[in-house]
Structure formats: C-alpha cells, structure tokens
Amino acid sequence: xxxxxxxxxxxxxxxxxxxxxxxxxxxxxxxxxxxxxxxxxxxxxxxxxxxxxxxxxxxxxxxxxxxxxxxxxxxxxxxxxxxxxxxxxxxxxxxxxxxxxxxxxxxxxxxxxxxxxxxxxxxxxxxxxxxxxxxxxxxxxxxxxxxxxxxxxxxxxxxxxxxxxxxxxxxxxxxxxxxxxxxxxxxxxxxxxxxxxxxxxxxxxxxxxxxxxxxxxxxxxxxxxxxxxxxxxxxxxxxxxxxxxxx
Length: 247
Known about the structure:
By secondary structure, the chain is mainly beta. It contains one helix and eleven strands, in the order H-E-E-E-E-E-E-E-E-E-E-E. Strands 1, 2, 3, 4, 5, 6, 7, 8, 9, 10 and 11 form an eleven-stranded antiparallel β-sheet that branches.
C-alpha cells in the first residue's frame, strides 16, 4: 500500500503542475470582455509548458481547441479541449465594466469548471480523475483598434480522486496569473501571445513537493488564434432621389 500511495502522490504531483496551467484553463486567450451576442468564436492555441520538478523539470507541448458563443452584451459561454492529456474546460465570461469606444479599462469574471483524466501506469494502476473550479479576474486595457493588453489573476481549487482499491483524494489550491496581448489583425481574426505562471499555495497532501522534487510551479507560453466573435458593422443606405419628369 505504501508503494501505491507513493506512486499516487508522485502522479498527483506531476498532474498538478500540468493542470495548473492547462486543464483548468489557466490560459486566458482573449480580451477582458465577452464576444458579441449571437456570434461564435473558434480558438486554437498551440503552447509550450514547463513544470518545476527539481533538477529535472517537465517541458512539453500542448494544444487547446475550443469555441465561444455570445449570449448577451455582458455574458458569453466557452468550452475547450486540452491535449495531449484529455482535459475539458467550460466557462462563462461576465462583463463587470466595458470601456466606451474601445478606450480605457475592461473588467470581467470568467468562472469555470474543468476535468482532466490522467491514465494509469503500465502496472495496471488506476487512472487519476481531476476536477477544478476556477475564478479568474480579467483586466484589459484597450489600446484602440480592438487591441488590448490583458492581466488575469486567478485562483484554482483542484480535487484529485484515485479510483483504485486504495482510493484517495486530495484538494489543492493554485494561484496564478496570465499576461497577454490581443492583436486584432482583422475584424474577425486576432493573435494572442500570452505567458502564464502558477504556484501551489495550499494542499491537503503532507509533504507535497518536498518528497518528489515538485514545487507545484508551472509556466506556459501560448499563442492563441481567435476566429470570429464580432458583428459586422451595419451598413447604412442613403436613399436616392428619383428623377422628376418634366411637365
């Protein structure tokens, strides 16, 4: 049982670093305001991440695919798939403040839920199921032309469940932030380079990090590609005068 317990804690330690910036959607990948009501947006975001593991940090690629739909002027809904591990994220972006004429400060909340599946090892160990609740605060400074600098502090509450005979659970809290730039190349396409950092601040597992050389820290560099999300400007038609026939 001790061997099983140690394997589970080791797997949990690595999974937390991965989850801290990925499956719980630590990446923001967008401005601090919902997309336009009735519109949809597709998100593609290749990234690289680093998880602190003492002298041998984990470094690897990742990919996020997802979409959003605008419900009202102040609310939208989003979903993402995270790879290579199958992770799923669902969130809602809720505007608290929208700058007028795209100049000034935008504020929004983006509460979300996520699920990450970590498969067992070659010795038929049971998989690990990880669920999270996250609460980011999106802060965006508009630069005009749809461009925006974003800073997003966030907290993530994570619960991990081992489904083996020795089933165990752990609750962990991660704090982090992302900094990004929304470059609105065209009205329906934007590039969003972004960097994110996360730290484990509270865990129910005694000795977390010290026993496995994992300090719970992670870093992520992403490049978001956003397609759609904006209404086309309404076209105004100027009525023409019909020629008057001479009497």
